[in-house]
Amino acid sequence: MRIVDLTRDRVDDTAALLQSAFRGRSDEWPDAAAARRTVDASLDAGNISRVALDDADDVIGWIGAMPSYRGNVWEIHPIVVARERRRTGVGRALIGDVERLVRERGGLTLWAGSDDENGETSLGGADLYDDIAGAIQTIRNLRGHPYEFFLNVGFRIAGVLPDANGPGKPDIFLAKPVVR
Q1: Structure confidence at residue 28 (pLDDT)
Q2: String of b and e for 57-86 (b: at least 16 CB within 10 Å)?
């Protein structure tokens, strides 16, 4: 596996990977055109857009990152790995690659939002407003939600936005320092 900058000739394959990986998990990419718009936007100046390629040069993973707070903070949006390549180190390698690039650009923090639109965590379907901090402390993964991947690569839950995607559908915010 190698990780390289996303180029125009790999946009369609990357969009197909994005749409396939999130089918049934998110309404953000309902069709190929929506997925392609996200991939195209990742190529805007100043962003980071990297793909993981297998030995046959097929796209098996993609990560995008966008700067904010004058480049101090970078949002990962999105990260995706082909289903058959998950749990093989591709996602970890993509995070490490972006972390290195963000550090080289003077960034301090990486963050990601990980929606729970389908009740995959104990935060889904709950009224979180009474005790947001308590809900974060007692979060449980009920059905393979990816927030645990982020925890495993050094992120920490930095907050939750209740009802971000509708009633009982929060967005979980995770952050990680790239410089200590």
Answers
A1: 74
A2: eebbbbbbbbbeeeeebbbbbbbbbbeebb
Residue type, 8: R
The kind and range of the H/E element at 33 are helix 32-42
**Are residues 163 and 124 in contact, defined by beta-carbon separation less than 8 angstroms?**
no
Res 46: pLDDT: 96
Residue 4 tokens, joined: 């390289």
Measured CA to CA in angstroms, residue 26 lies from 49, 65, 99, 106 at distances of 21, 19, 25, 32
Contact partners, residue 178, CB within 8 Å, separation at least 6: 74, 99, 102, 103, 107, 108, 109, 110
Give per-10-residue mean pLDDT for the chain (180 aa). 97 94 72 92 96 98 98 97 95 98 98 95 96 97 96 98 96 94
End-to-end CA distance of the chain: 29
pLDDT of residue 29: 80
Per DSSP, the three-state class of 87 is coil
Specify the pLDDT at position 142: 97
- If one counts every other C-beta atom within 10 angstroms of the C-beta of residue 8, the result is 9
| Cβ–Cβ under 8 Å, residues 15 and 39 | yes
Residue-level pLDDT at 26 = 65
Q: Among residues 121, 178, 174, 123, which one has the least CA distance to residue 150?
A: 174
